Amino acid sequence: MASAKTVQIPQALPEDPDPQALAAEILRVLRYRVGKDTTVATRYDWLTASIQVVRDRVIDHWMEATKEAYDRQEKRVYYLSLEFLIGRLMRDAFSNLGMMETMRQALVSLGVDLDAIAQLEPDAALGNGGLGRLAACFMESMATVDIPAHGYGIRYANGMFRQEIQDGWQVELPETWLDHGNPWEFERRERAFEVGFGGSVESVTDKDGRLERHVWKPGERVLAVAYDTPVVGWRANRVNTLRLWSGMPVDPILLDKFNAGDHMGALAESNKADALSRVLYPADSHKEGQELRLRQEYFFSSASLQDILQRHLSQYGDLGSLPDKAAIHLNDTHPAVAVPELMRLLMDVHGIDFDQAWDITRRTFGYTNHTLLPEALESWPVPLFERLLPRHMQIVYAINAAVLLEARATGRFNGDQIARISLIQENGDRRVRMGNLAFVGSHSINGVSALHTELMKQTVFADLHSLYPNRINNKTNGITPRRWLFQCNPGLTELARETIGDRFLDDIEAIHDLDRFAEDAGFRDKFAAVKRANKERLATLVAERLGIKVDPSALFDIQIKRIHEYKRQLLNILEAIALYDQIRSHPERDWVPRVKFFGGKAAPSYHNAKLIIKLANDVAKVINGDPSVRGLLKVVFVPNYNVSAAEVMMPAADLSEQISTAGMEASGTGNMKFALNGALTIGTLDGANVEIRERVGDDNIFIFGLKADEVAERRANGYQPRAIIEGSRELSQAIAAVSSGVFSPDDPDRYRDLMNGLYDSDWFMVAADFDAYAAAQRSIDDVWRDSPAWYARAIRNVARVGWFSSDRTIREYAKDIWNVPA
């Protein structure tokens, strides 16, 4: 991957040695820890040695921060998330410690290029999309604003998958990021906890026959073993811990079965344990996948809670003080099973009665909701839940009884409302509603953008909000500027430093001082030169990876995110087809050269999403190979989109595609990253787009399409997409071309069902918004032709989005939810 020169950040740690001394230290580590000398050392060896030299300094800060938190009896935050999309860590650590330039000089003296070895570090395959990247930004910001915190998740050996594109189709392959080991992590075998599944529950009574407690006797047991990764805050303000759990069998091999010839049976327990930390999001289109996913969620939630309680008891000796010393946060519904698990541990293991345990639980947990999509608000079949977690099913029923009796006692809820409040879904197959469970088990429930939070109150949690009107609050998402500006866009960072000084490095909102330079022609020229260099870097990457040549002078129009119908990559593709037809039909017009970039993974069992990837590649093949287009339009799908790819693509973007169906994107953080790097947004009034528009101004963003309430109204009143399609010449022609096989001559019917879906239902309002979207794109062409006006708008975007920092978001969490100083 092409690289950019890293900006020289002022040194944070004056005790660091000079480059010559650092070079000597690297050589010592290379010899005595890696076991190589300079004559045989590979680039991987130099990478490992460089990381370990810096890691030693991280460890000093890490131990100091841990000791201080203990000595001061500081309240800790525990962030439970099924994903942590941390990407590569080397630049994070080097930059946040203030050692980047010193390390660069030291390595140059040894004949090693830091940028070259940095690209060898694999992206940690610990997440998929925005949920995991947000968790990573939050961990870095908690360290930066000096909050003692642990992140808890799973150490996936193979991640979700590595995406390859073969003949235009997504192919899923194992992500082998741990093949060369992970020099950042530390195995903590002493922090291993048993996690059980299945079995039975027994009641223990006293001599008078009164119930004393319940005893769960699991039928299966596995070990959760901790692996710790230090998370360095900016200028090493604090180093926190990301603790990830790996599954191991209690008994690695059953020798009696092995010796009896049952070799597979002898390894069955080992295989089950290994599966718990093998793959992120196993396909849940079959029962086995659903069961594994529930096992994973309970596995890491139980291990994390056992770890938290053990740490708390060792320091304070009393679990009654848990809410005062620990804030446990549930990042979406994946760790919601932690609610009954904490109740089980408090009651069954530590002898606390139900009422006190419920009070402790609710005061300890907070819950962030990330979606309004019903299918993403997890629910589990009662038989599955009860078979895997029989004691937890009992506790869920007990919690449900307490909540429903409380609701009935108010006299304000009818039968339908009570049914919606219930933790058990009764219509159809009986299921445990994990969103409702997380809601009732937490003292705070937050949305992640202003619009999303209001829609939560009106839709998915309307009745629970009525029962508990003070629990829902908003915490608009943010991004860490260290990775998403300083590291990924050093040219823009250096230009900002030259222009307004260094204050924004520590307070990103100070970047607003750039606003007054939007009309400065000299500054605009420098800004345009930075953007051009970033586009050339992306063009080089595309040429090297895909063999596609793109012109950096063209408008770079980028949509990179998880492939899902509500995110509407299909709308973008259909508009590209319409534009293609217009360019061919009207070659005399002054068309703006444009490159449309796509990137993202589709869930392995999500047929339509995978079909959309294939369509994007089929369309790209036709358009890119048509000489009549004269290079005015190109379409590029970048495979295996991840954090490292984003770090190249976002600084290169001229236009950021944020075009989800209004009311369906909780927030988005890609929109913030693009804007901070000088891209203009085309988008609906959805998620954080609403607040971005408020910050950057109507003239510096391109808004189109239906609003959330208009989408809901059309659906309620019998939306008829066929009439809209037939009334739009460009859309109808584009759909007809796709449906008839113009882009799939090898299989003319490939996309017929996908296109028929637009005529029949069009749940995601592609047809309804198409003409408005196409018109917005042509207005973008008009602005692009006026280069000074375009760059003035881009500069205003950079200057006005500093508020969307995860530092600000975390300070709001700390004040309003966790009750910790920041």
Automatic annotation (TrEMBL):
<dbReference type="InterPro" id="IPR000811">
    <property type="entry name" value="Glyco_trans_35"/>
</dbReference>
<keyword id="KW-0663">Pyridoxal phosphate</keyword>
<dbReference type="Pfam" id="PF00343">
    <property type="entry name" value="Phosphorylase"/>
</dbReference>
<comment type="similarity">
    <text>Belongs to the glycogen phosphorylase family.</text>
</comment>
<comment type="function">
    <text>Phosphorylase is an important allosteric enzyme in carbohydrate metabolism. Enzymes from different sources differ in their regulatory mechanisms and in their natural substrates. However, all known phosphorylases share catalytic and structural properties.</text>
</comment>
<comment type="function">
    <text>Allosteric enzyme that catalyzes the rate-limiting step in glycogen catabolism, the phosphorolytic cleavage of glycogen to produce glucose-1-phosphate, and plays a central role in maintaining cellular and organismal glucose homeostasis.</text>
</comment>
<dbReference type="GO" id="GO:0004645">
    <property type="term" value="F:1,4-alpha-oligoglucan phosphorylase activity"/>
</dbReference>
<keyword id="KW-0328">Glycosyltransferase</keyword>
<keyword id="KW-0119">Carbohydrate metabolism</keyword>
<dbReference type="InterPro" id="IPR011833">
    <property type="entry name" value="Glycg_phsphrylas"/>
</dbReference>
<keyword id="KW-0808">Transferase</keyword>
<protein>
    <recommendedName>
        <fullName>Alpha-1,4 glucan phosphorylase</fullName>
        <ecNumber>2.4.1.1</ecNumber>
    </recommendedName>
</protein>
<dbReference type="InterPro" id="IPR035090">
    <property type="entry name" value="Pyridoxal_P_attach_site"/>
</dbReference>
